[in-house]
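DM between two lab members

TW: hey, do you still have the DUF2634 domain-containing protein entry open?
JB: yeah, one sec
JB: this one, 128 aa:
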Amino acid sequence: MSKDLATDDSGDIIIDPETGDFVMIDDDDQAVATNIALGTNEGELSWNPSFGLNHLHIIENLDDIPSLEAEIEDYLESQFDNFVSAEIKDIKRNGRTATVDLAVTYLDDSGEETTVTAGTEVDNIGTD
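TW: and the structure you got?
JB:
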C-alpha cells in the first residue's frame, strides 16, 4: 500500500503543527491522490520540479476536449500504475480561471474498476 500526502477539505496539504512534517495517509482514498496529482502545477514543487500537470497546456486546450482528455490521461497514467481512464464531465469557466471536473477510473486491489470524481482548477494568470 502506498502513502500519499494528506489534505484537508479545501485541498491544502496538512502539516503536523508539532513536528512540521507532512502528514501522510495510506492510499485507501484514490480520489485524494488524484486531486493532489491534478492540482499540482508542473514545476511548482522545488524539490520535484517534474511532478505535476502542466496547467498552461490545460488552459490552452479547454476548447479541444479530446486533446485535453489525452493530456490528462497521459499524465495520470505516468503517476498511477492502476490508472484506466479519465473522462471530462464538466468545464466551468470563470474569467481567467477554469475548473475541469473528471471521472477517473482505476483498478482496485481486486482488479475491479472503480471510478472517482476529481478535478483541477487552472488559470492563465501570468501566462500572457
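TW: got it. The first strand starts at residue 3 and ends at 5. The beta strands are 3-5, 24-26, 83-94, 97-107, 113-123.
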